[in-house]
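@channel sequence for tomorrow's demo:
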Amino acid sequence: MAVYDLTTWSGRDQFAGTLEEISSKKHNWRLHTTRPGKFFTKRELLDEKGDGFDGFIISMPGNDAVMAEISKSDIPTVLVNITDRRLAARAKAVSTVSGVSRFFERR
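C-alpha cells (generated this afternoon):
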C-alpha cells in the first residue's frame, strides 16, 4: 500500500516513479493507495477483503493510531521524506529515504 499526497508536484512525481517501476514486466505488484493525514487510519491497513498488505510506502504520515500500529508491525515499510520516531526506532524491515524526487533527478 502506498500513501501519497497527489496535490503537490513532488507527491505526483514520486507516485509516477512508483507506477513506472511496477509497470515493468519484472514485478507483479498489486498497488493500493490511500490519501495521507486524517484519511490514513488503521482501517486503511486492510484491503477491501480484510487482508493485510505485504508492504507500505509512506510519503506522508497518517493519524497517530495508524503510525503506532505500523511501528509495532514487521511489515516491510519504506518511509519517503518523513520521519516518525516510532517507525525509525524499528530495527526490522524499515527503510528511510529522504530528498527523493524523480523530477529533480531528471534535470
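heads up for whoever presents: Strands lie at 2-3, 33-34, 56-58, 77-80, 94-97.
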